[in-house]
Amino acid sequence: MSIDERLENTSFPLPAIREVNLSKHPSGISLGLGELKDFDVDEKIFMSLKEGWQQGGTSYTQNAGLPDLRKAIAQKHSAIDGFPYTMDNIIVTIGVQNAVYTSLLTLAKLGAKRVLIPEIHFGIYKKIPLDFGMEVVSYPLKDDFGIDEKALNGIIKEDDVLIINSPSNPTGRVLSLEEQKSLGELLAKKLTQGYVISDEIYGQLVYDAPKAISFSAFFDRTIVVDGISKSAAAAGLRVGWIITNNEKLAKAFTSNNATIISTPPTANQYAALPVVKGETEDTISTYRQILKANRDKVIAVLDKLNIPYVMPKGSFYIFPKVSTIVEGDIKEFCLNTARKENGVVVIPGVAFGAPDYIRISLASKQIDEGMRRFEEAIRNCLK
Ligand SMILES: Cc1ncc(COP(=O)(O)O)c(C=O)c1O
Predict the structure, then answer these.
(1) CA distance linking residue 222 with residue 261, whole number of Å
(2) What is the tens place of the pLDDT at every residue in 351-360?
(3) What is the pTM of this model?
(4) Helix, strand, coil proportions of the chain in percent (round to 5)?
(5) Best residue for ligand 1 mutational test, from 97, 126, 171, 260 (most atoms within 8 Å of Cβ)
(6) pLDDT-derived band at 84, boundaries 50, 70, 90
(7) Which ligand 1 atom sits nearest the alpha carbon of residue 202?
(8) Which of 86, 148, 268, 295 has the fewest CB atoms nearer than 10 Å to its CB?
(9) In this model, does residue 382 exceed pLDDT 80?
(10) Separation between Cα atoms, residue 283 and residue 33, nearest integer Å
(11) Would you say the CB of residue 166 lies under 6 angstroms from ligand 1?
(12) Where are the domains of the chain?
């Protein structure tokens, strides 16, 4: 069969999240977005972007990214887990998606065979390793969306790659310090040759629990991926990074990422500097306040409708189980609700491997009207 014939018979679908977001009626409200689109971006980010633009923003940076940014990330992370990071431990990427991609690609090239992902997960954790021919195994979560350590203990092999994501997309679950400690102890015994990829992109958006701390403080063989897309409301700048305490691994990541992206965009890396240096903390703190208030508004509606949920404490999503009251296919429900005039967009849980659920984003200025429309949609299809 020729390429063109295969093309006729193969579909390369957009992620389910995009599909539902794209089906929104012009009069619709989106509670489906994975970014703080309605939030004001800190002025310092724009100022730094402009400065970066003036200071060679049209030239390449090093393949691993802007030295000043990498130094700032290294310094910040040393203060968290005590490892003496230098810029050689840091690789700047085009968003966290690129960071996950390059980490997995490199580990696959180094012989990693299996990737363990949470049973409810951000879609790329499954899609990327499958593209590299790796085996993907789901590990169970408890009813409160915490990691089921006992089950994980029974599954994990010494050379696996384990992906964790706290605060989580889509559940909003934040691992507590005790949970992180206990997981770190388990992994120290079991994961002696493999690695953890810890996706900490929502780390600064813990609004109702003690501040998140990086998992690298609990387990040495942790590769941290992080960035400014979520916490700085700057997803479009596409700046993320990888942190590893293993310099050889950092060199391997740099080499592989250079093949994919050459270098990350120069001026945008300047824009990330004030975020990493903590200069935008006041703004991020207002984001947290808004998210918490929005969370409380959403749960008030869910309570009224008797829809079960686990109380989220971080990221900006809630993941209620609507199958208890919505008849039929939940993705269809979401598509219909999105397409309707004066409808609302929420994301079907199937996009995260959990078809009984939906994801509602707390990051909308129209949360009151959005939830009013959601309530109406639910009442129209009560079992
Ligand atoms: C858990 C998680 N990781 C990574 C990403 C991708 O981040 P970026 O936009 O920086 O590539 C997202 C975006 O939705 C996410 O939710």
Answers:
(1) 24
(2) 999 999 999 9
(3) 0.97
(4) 45, 15, 40
(5) 97
(6) very high
(7) 1
(8) 86
(9) no
(10) 20
(11) no
(12) 3-41+282-380, 56-276
Q: What is the mean pLDDT of the chain?
A: 96
| Digit-coded pLDDT (tens) for 1-12 | 999 999 999 988
State which fold the 3-41+282-380 domain adopts.
Answer: Aspartate Aminotransferase, domain 1 (3.90.1150)
Tell whether ligand 1 has an atom less than 6 A from the beta carbon of residue 199. Answer: yes
What confidence score (pLDDT) does residue 383 get? Answer: 56
Q: Is the CB of 201 inside a 6 Å radius of any atom of ligand 1?
A: yes
Could you tell me the two tokens for 185?
Answer: 């102890």
Q: What is the pLDDT of residue 181?
A: 98
Task: Tell me the residue length of the chain.
Answer: 383
**With a 6 A CB cut-off, is 235 part of the ligand 1 pocket?**
yes
> Ligand 1 centroid vs 378 CA: distance in angstroms?
29
Residue pair 370/364 in contact by the 8 Å Cβ criterion: yes
Tell me the torsion sign for CA atoms 17, 22, 25, 27: positive
Rounded (10°) CA dihedral 101, 248, 220, 87: -80
Distance of CA 23 to the CA centre of its chain: 23
What's the CATH fold of domain 56-276?
Answer: Aspartate Aminotransferase; domain 2 (3.40.640)
Residue-by-residue DSSP string for 260-298? HHSS--HHHHHHHHHHHTTTTHHHHHHHHHHHHHHHHHH
